[in-house]
Design goal:
- This protein is α/β, with parallel strands linked by helices.
- It has one domain: Aminopeptidase.
- It has an eight-stranded mixed β-sheet, sandwiched between helices. It has a two-stranded antiparallel ribbon with strand order 7-8.
- It is globular, with a radius of gyration of 19 Å.
Amino acid sequence: MNAPAFYPIGTPGRAWGAQEVAQWRARQVRHRSYADDVLSAIEGLRERFDVVEYGRLDYAPDAYPLFAIKSRNWDPNLPVALVTGGVHGYETSGVHGALLFLDRHAGDYAGRVNLLVAPCISPWAYERIHRWNVDAIDPNRSFRENSPAQESAALLRLVAPVRAQVLAHIDLHETTDSDESEFRPALAARDGKPFEPGEIPDGFYLVGDTDNPQPEFQQAVIAAVEQVTHIAPPDAQGEIIGSPVVAHGVINYPVKQLGLCAGITDARYTTTTEVYPDSPRATPAQCNAAQAAAVCAALDFALAARAG
């Protein structure tokens, strides 16, 4: 893939200001409907789960209610499992994989764990198939106190009351060809830095926590997903997206330091999934199924370890 010579907004070597952000925002086009794709699916879950509105994004002229789905018979004596999707709105299977898990698999965990699922954290970006929010901020670098991203701040408020009870947190993401063709060039332009081309891995992988890697847990998730779709191999340098591969299909990031969603609790078991939807070897249905399989495998491992 040839790297673009420039990004059409801003001046090379100079970070964006308000004018450039406004220019970028004006270029964003709605391609799909949060109401049709996500809210309608959530409505269909109300008979089986509690649905809570945990925030609202007022991005005039648009407004987006933020919903989380909870176990109906919440038991304070049980641990909590947190599932998050759509932190990056363009990562489609994160959203629909979370909804698929709820519809097809969540009932298997009734009475064993309290589920808290936020399937679409960034609905404005979901509609525009983008990584950033309306202010050209990446929510997945913004999960920290006084967050500049409304999406991140709303999720932090939702999770705060149960933060200490979270046993497992599975954050559902994708790595796409558009990371290299659009989003990383845009990031470089926004920050006034040169764009350095990278390599998109073909397949599923996981991002663990450098400070709490839990290798057996990560491998249990990889083994389950491998029954659904292929696992990304390391590149010639033994890396995936610039990070050393520490085990089959696994790299680690310092998630709390980077302000990533996977670091918002002190859960023992955390992982970030990365599906590759642009692979000729994977269909959209497989991508959604891979996300749901990852959630199930993570919960199965965490609950077995807790019982043992």
